[in-house]
Write a sequence for this structure.
């Protein structure tokens, strides 16, 4: 009776997973990772800390659901970060819903805004995180858990051999 020992997620393990982020209120999928996301647990934070903590001790083949109140992550919506301008005052390259605009204040601080609405005369940009004010559910499928290589530990993720152009150095992907 030999039992296969499964690697569990702890610091220093290379993990591959897929996930969906679902809006609890509307049951709509907000984000879905189509290709496996690979990272080294405890080396880099690619997911919200709450999700990372829930992954601890899980193994390949496990599926889990992690509810998150995004107010805890991003704070409440700040309506002062929602700006509506006349369309003619906005450069044409920003005139498309979904476009990200990096803006700078008079102190040199930058913030990303997203074009959220447009009509014939106006455009609205929003500096709130798109998940602000929402309750979401992370649905995660763990595909692989194994010891990370030294290179993966260094880069925080999967390292693949690139084309042999000048010495064939490994590059993080």
């Amino acid at each position: 009776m030999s039992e296969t020992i499964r690697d569990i997620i702890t610091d220093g393990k290379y993990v591959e997973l897929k996930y969906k982020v679902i809006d609890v209120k509307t049951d709509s999928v907000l984000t879905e990772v189509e290709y496996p996301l690979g990272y080294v647990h405890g080396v880099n934070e690619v997911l919200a800390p709450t999700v990372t903590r829930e992954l601890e001790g899980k193994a390949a083949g496990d599926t889990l659901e992690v509810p998150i109140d995004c107010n805890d992550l991003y704070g409440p919506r700040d309506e002062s970060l929602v700006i509506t301008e006349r369309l003619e005052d906005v450069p044409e390259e920003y005139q498309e819903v979904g476009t990200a605009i990096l803006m700078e204040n008079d102190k040199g601080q930058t913030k990303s805004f997203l074009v959220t609405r447009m009509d014939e005369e106006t455009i609205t940009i929003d500096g709130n995180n798109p998940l602000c004010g929402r309750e979401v559910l992370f649905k995660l499928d763990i595909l692989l858990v194994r010891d990370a290589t030294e290179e993966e530990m260094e880069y925080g993720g999967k390292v693949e051999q690139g084309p042999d152009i000048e010495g064939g150095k490994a590059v993080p992907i």
Summary: The first strand starts at residue 13 and ends at 23. The CA atoms of residues 44 and 156 lie 6 Å apart.
